[in-house]
Amino acid sequence: AQSVTQLDSQVPVFEEAPVELRCNYSSSVSVYLFWYVQYPNQGLQLLLKYLSGSTLVESINGFEAEFNKSQTSFHLRKPSVHISDTAEYFCAVRNGGTSYGKLTFGQGTILTVHP
Amino acid sequence: GAGVSQSPRYKVAKRGQDVALRCDPISGHVSLFWYQQALGQGPEFLTYFQNEAQLDKSGLPSDRFFAERPEGSVSTLKIQRTQQEDSAVYLCASSLGEGQMTYEQYFGPGTRLTVT
Lengths: 115, 116
What we know:
The structure holds two protein chains of two kinds.
Chain A (H helix, E strand, L loop, with lengths): L2 E4 L3 E5 L4 E3 L1 E4 L4 E8 L5 E7 L5 E3 L5 E5 L4 E6 L8 E9 L7 E3 L3 E6 L1
Parallel strand pairs in A: 2-12
Antiparallel strand pairs in A: 1-4, 3-9, 5-6, 5-10, 7-8, 8-9, 10-11, 10-12
Chain B lengths: L4 E3 L2 E4 L5 E6 L6 E7 L6 E7 L2 E4 L8 E4 L6 E5 L8 E8 L10 E2 L3 E5 L1
Parallel strand pairs in B: 2-11
Antiparallel strand pairs in B: 1-3, 3-8, 4-5, 4-9, 5-6, 7-8, 9-10, 9-11
């Protein structure tokens, strides 16, 4: 069975500081990896995904994540955060061998950006 | 249409009542998923539909939970004889295709169920 561990439940940072949200997964098969963001009172939105190819993936708003197979990690980073990045972030994994996209999520990390 | 919609957004039920939660997926999306998100936790898979066929219901926590998608579009998640532990946000997601095309799921805003 797959599992996803997000090592930090809450991450407070100051505006314009760098941030890393950590995610580790366990799976015995190939996986697809995702980061979702959830703003207050809104649904989950896909932030970025790793399916294959380059292990470094980027989002349109400056976040990036690197797939590290040997360490089974998919940490999310941003070099300079904004107040508007305050949200809860979820790492998720999909078994690459399944024919449909059932996701296993981590517990979530609340990112709070302070002015 | 716009995105995935869910109704009601909030539901308060007395213990023992039955509830029905509705999901309207994005038009044309073949795949539909239900997830349960308890307070302070990540979403957990409940069940999956491909068109009208329920292909996986391994995540349904008990036989009080029942889901259907009779015409391959709108889906309803029904919980019978609600218990306090059923209190959670119920999320619906849809995706365009099947097989390798299902990697991007679009989520609705969820229904927050509170059982008193």
